[in-house]
Specification:
The complex is a heterotrimer. Chain A has 22 helices and 13 strands. Chain A is of the alpha+beta class. In chain B, strand 1 (about 45-50) and strand 2 form a beta hairpin. In chain B, helix 11 (about 260-265) runs antiparallel to helix 12 (about 270-305). The chains are: A alpha+beta, B mainly alpha, C mainly alpha.
Chain lengths: ~450, ~300, ~300
């Protein structure tokens, strides 16, 4: 379920939230204006290429981005479309029970031999398992498509690190930069710190020891510092000094150990809980009665997951504030990759370039879909635009903080095994936090689980 | 006599003909994967990312690895505990209902309704069922608030953090999902029992007890054996309920990890070697336990 | 072991004999237990219905015992979203219906072969099929997927339906049922009348097996209806997907579209046909003893 959960980013609230974001409007007209120029180029070049473009994905996010923003895309059915004379097929396999990756693992290695109309051309990946495909020949180097480093220069470095193979080739590209920060309950900040000013709050949580002091103060006022220990896990795990696996050996990084020690203290002091993310117990803090001081998350969490459409929620009254928090981190994002064997390389190249580097399209995406887009220039513009004040944040414009955060995120320490290691580590440590196991026993359980998942690895 | 035999032989040849569809489909869709499962148990054979490691013949090394740890024993124990916790109430309730429904002296009204209702929980997908359980048994959920308001506990009980409560919830879910199934099986078995038998017995002065033990149960015996064996096998293959309820972790401290959940862990890396070896062990465990049940029920037959 | 446990129970229960007062007491106990069980069985449908009427934000606040007003909004969102729910319903009906049909018909046939004929290797085949039951389905799932792909059965219903012909569990039930309900004399009589074996099977055995077929048809239909794992490995084309895949897809929706209210409404929507099939078939079972069935 954890895997799903990353996509389960709840939000029905389009009505309440998107209105302020699209207030400046014009997204449809601007994407329309860029149509003619690119329209011809793709249709002339694809003439000698395949007539079918197959896209493997696990939900409809990218489909709706393409439908709304890619010039010349026409919807012809629920999961089909046309670009020029090329038919686009959206092949959706849900993530539950690893079905999406199982499917990719099955079709990608044979892709070159598949018949022209069945060849996968584009597939999507999430950060946690991206390297599995990046470090394999099934994924094309972007340079082989004719995409240069210059084309990607406005993207944030961390989004490129995640899809860099062991030789330094970039094999994917994302339109999102999901930099994240600390989302605090303004009322709680006033009660605990006497101020809800983002800069002042930031001072009180600027490193982990200050954060933990604030946790103690929050408890006195009846607040839990976070809803669960899992809220801060990403913050620690994004700031490690080395990868999970070195020479096929699993290593627990000092910063991850610090998460364990800090969290254990917080749990024992009753300052947080061990609930799962996305559970009822986790989301109770979205309402004033939940008495939670802060959550950690990116723009999409703020905009779509904190139930702003629900009367009585903190988001509904604009009662949240946003600051960097103890360390920079990111959460989420979807990467576009080209499958080796594609018979539509020109079209694939154009889609990747337009959707992830074209500044006018990225601006449209930011306006229409509230994605925190993967362009330094665009985010800078948004940061200085007062109309991008966020209603959930009581009018605060989060883009400056997000942009600075995205610059600081360092994902050079990822490994092929992050998905499994992160999931199993959090699961094993829950036993320690709950008092069901000592740290050593919990660690032993983690080791067992890792060797089950990755037989090639060894542990201490 | 000779003529009769040859006639019988001719007739009995139809046995083979009627077996053809089953055997054909079985060989294609089950025997081939099964043979490769057993074959694979002697190999190192898994995926590392998208790279295939092996297959490399390693003899019994997979079995050694599985048998050297305490896990096999522990997870067999977990599985049996959770099965018994769910099965005992299940069979008691099912037999009780079967006894009541067949007891002419009780003359229960609304039997059709009750008989229909008991199977309904099985219609809900296990995943959806678990979602409802999560909501009900959350720290801030209704069960906790009821327990708190009547003063049994002072602060929320974390159902998912204690071995006893997780096992209990697994057993409860299994019970709810399957007791109707068991009752229906028993009732369908009773379809063939003529109700006049019960009435005649009652006229003869038999008690409800006697009717149940002397008429209902013996007639139910083949179905009862079926229920026992399939439930045991189903219990040993217990997977979806604890898997969903614990997010596949089997926590706390793997106290609710079942054998198939363990098997499933090896399938994540397509570890055909370890999964194959574990399957063979499972086959052996199930075979032994089933044999015991068969033997026990067969000796009963002699008694009668 | 279990037998002795339950024996204690029944001895306690039926202790005082023959007095009408004890019958009344036992009747009251029976009703109380039955009503409790009924509540325990039906409450889930109530909660599911309640949750289907709530909005995503409302749901995150935890359990409520009373419905809200979003049911039609949720249903409307499902039917006007891009998921092919109607098609999914039809696909599920095809797969589950054919599975139920094939598995009961052919398992009865297999059981009949073992029950009615004395041929060489009969016992060995019986034991062999019982052994098959012990193979967990998860074991061969990935090998099964490989097999289906190499035969071009991706996006086909065949791998979901045809394997049910060889269901050891259904066979075993049919065999056990025949042991108590299908006398050999009856078959002999039919043979003497000169009926062909296939005719005997179709016109005499199958009708006599109706209750057993109904039971296993329900189980097979429900099992297939709710099956996610194997279909998710085989079906990728939208026009072939079954309801559990669509539900999983709804749960994996991106944050712009994610809506637990819709998920619950979809689950509620997908349960309806199973309930109807169950109610239709269950009359063969529950009618049984009360109606005073004709002995087979």
């Amino acid at each position: 379920m954890k895997r799903q959960v990353k996509n389960i980013i709840s939000a029905a609230l389009i009505a309440a939230m998107v209105v302020p974001m699209t207030a400046c409007g014009g997204s449809s007209s601007s994407s329309g204006s860029s149509k003619p120029s690119s329209g011809d180029s793709s249709s002339t070049k694809t003439a000698e290429e395949g007539k079918v473009l197959n896209i493997e994905c696990w939900n409809e996010e990218f489909k709706s981005r393409i439908t709304d923003h890619y010039p010349g895309y026409q919807e012809t059915g629920d999961n089909t479309g046309k670009i020029g004379d090329v038919t686009v097929n959206w092949i959706i396999t849900p993530t539950k029970d690893n079905a999406y990756q199982n499917n990719l693992d099955k079709v990608l290695p044979d892709n070159a031999n598949a018949s022209a109309d069945d060849k996968v051309d584009i597939f999507l990946m999430e950060a946690d398992y991206a390297l599995k495909y990046v470090n394999s020949d099934v994924t094309m180097k972007l340079s082989d498509l004719g995409i240069t480093d210059d084309d990607l220069s406005d993207q944030f470095d961390y989004t490129k690190d995640i899809v860099k193979d062991s030789d330094g080739n970039i094999k994917g590209s994302s339109w999102q930069a999901c930099a994240a920060g600390m989302i605090y309950n303004r009322q709680a900040a006033k009660d605990v710190l006497g101020t809800d000013d983002p800069d002042k709050v930031q001072e009180a949580v600027s490193d982990w020891s200050k954060f933990n002091d604030t946790a103690a103060k929050a408890k006195e006022k009846g607040y839990k510092i976070t809803s669960t220990v899992n809220d801060t896990y990403r913050v620690y795990s994004n700031n490690v000094s080395g990868p999970w696996v070195k020479d096929n050996k699993v290593v627990v990084d000092p910063n991850i150990k610090k998460w364990v020690d800090d969290s254990k203290k917080l749990v024992d002091a009753g300052e947080t809980t061990t609930a799962d993310l996305w559970s009822d117990d986790w989301s109770k803090g979205f309402f004033p009665d939940g008495k939670v001081f802060c959550y950690f998350g990116p723009a999409w969490l703020i905009n779509f997951s904190m139930h702003a459409d629900e009367d009585g929620s903190i988001a509904n009254k604009g009662g949240w504030g946003f600051c960097v928090g103890p360390q920079s981190f990111y959460w989420g994002g979807t990467w576009i990759a080209a499958a080796t064997g594609t018979d539509n390389p020109t079209l694939v190249k154009d889609i990747i370039l337009k959707m992830t580097t074209d500044q006018s399209i990225l601006t449209d995406i930011a306006k229409k879909d509230s994605d925190c887009v993967n362009s330094k220039t665009v985010l800078n513009t948004l940061a200085s635009d007062d109309s991008f004040g966020n209603a959930v944040l009581g009018g605060q414009n989060p883009y400056k903080t997000l942009e600075e955060g995205a610059e600081k995120v360092d994902m050079s320490n990822i490994s092929n095994y992050d998905q499994g290691c992160n999931e199993e580590f959090q699961a094993a440590m829950k036993n320690y936090f709950d008092g069901n196991a000592s740290y050593d026993d919990a660690l032993k359980q983690f080791d067992t689980a890792i060797v089950e998942k990755y037989p090639e690895l060894t542990t201490d | 006599m000779g003529k009769k035999l040859s006639h019988n032989q001719r007739v009995n040849r139809w046995g083979y003909i009627f077996l053809i569809p089953f055997l054909l489909v079985f060989i294609i869709f089950q025997l081939i994967p099964l043979a490769s499962t057993i074959y694979n148990s002697f190999f190192e054979n898994y995926m590392s990312g998208l790279n295939h490691i092996g297959p490399k013949f390693i003899g019994f090394a997979n079995f050694q690895k599985l048998l050297s740890g305490h896990e096999l024993l522990q997870y067999t124990g977990n599985t049996m505990i959770m099965w018994v916790l769910g099965f005992v109430p299940q069979i008691i309730v099912s037999l009780l209902l079967a006894a009541w429904f067949t007891d002419p002296s009780l003359r229960l009204k609304g039997q059709r309704f009750f008989k229909t209702v008991i199977y309904l929980p099985n219609l809900i997908m296990a995943a959806a069922f678990a979602m409802l359980f999560f909501t009900l048994f959350a720290d801030t959920g209704p069960i906790n608030s009821i327990l708190q308001s009547i003063g049994i506990i002072s602060k929320p009980y974390q159902f998912m953090s204690h071995a006893g409560s997780v096992r209990g919830l697994v057993a409860l879910m299994n019970f709810l999902m399957w007791f109707g199934n068991t009752t229906i099986l028993l009732m369908a078995g009773m379809m063939g029992i003529d109700t006049s038998l019960f009435e005649a017995a009652e006229v003869d002065g038999a008690t409800a007890n006697q009717i149940f033990w002397k008429i209902t149960l013996p007639l139910l015996k083949p179905i009862f054996i079926y229920v026992l064996i399939t439930s045991l096998i189903g219990g040993l293959q217990m997977f979806d309920v604890p898997q969903i309820l614990t997010n596949g972790t089997g926590d706390p401290v793997r106290s609710s990890m079942t054998l198939i959940m363990w098997l499933n862990k090896h399938l994540y890396s397509r570890n055909y070697g370890m999964a194959g070896a574990l399957s063979v062990l499972l086959l052996i465990i199930t075979g032994i336990l089933s044999l015991i049940v068969f033997k026990a029920t067969a000796s009963n037959e002699v008694d009668e | 072991m279990d037998n002795s446990d339950s024996k204690l129970d029944f001895d306690d229960l039926g202790a005082p004999k023959k007095s009408t007062a004890s019958v009344t007491v036992r009747r009251i106990i029976a009703y109380v237990v039955l009503i409790l069980l009924t509540i325990l069985c039906l409450i889930w449908f109530y909660i599911l219905f309640i949750n289907a009427t709530r909005s995503n934000g409302d749901l995150s606040r935890g359990f409520r015992a009373y419905p809200s007003d979003r049911l039609f909004v949720n249903l409307n969102n499902i039917f006007h979203g891009s998921l092919p729910v109607v098609r999914g319903m039809i696909n599920s009906l095809i797969v589950a219906g054919l599975t139920a049909l094939l598995t009961t018909y052919f398992s009865t046939m297999t059981a009949y072969a073992i029950h009615a004929f004395r041929f060489k290797g009969r016992k060995a085949i019986f034991v062999f099929i019982l052994a098959i039951m012990m193979i967990p389905t998860q074991v061969s799932a990935l090998g099964f997927q490989q097999l289906c792909y190499s035969w071009g059965l991706e996006n086909s219903f065949i791998p979901l339906i045809v394997p049910s012909i060889a269901s050891a569990v259904v066979f075993f039930y049919m065999k056990q049922y025949m042991d108590s309900n299908l006398p050999h004399e009856l078959l002999e009589a039919a043979r003497i009348d000169g009926a062909g074996e296939i005719r005997i099977f179709n016109t005499i055995v199958i009708p006599l097996m109706k209750p057993a077929i109904a039971v296993q048809a329900i189980f097979a239909f429900v099992g297939s209806w709710n099956n996610y794992f194997i279909p998710s490995l085989i079906l990728h084309k939208d026009e072939m997907k079954t309801l559990p895949i669509l539900i999983a897809q709804l749960r994996a929706a991106d944050y712009l579209k994610f809506d637990m209210g819709q998920v619950y409404a979809m689950i509620a929507f997908s349960i309806f046909p199973v309930i109807i099939v169950y109610l239709l078939l269950s009359r063969y079972i529950v009618g049984g003893v009360t109606a005073g069935s004709v002995k087979g």
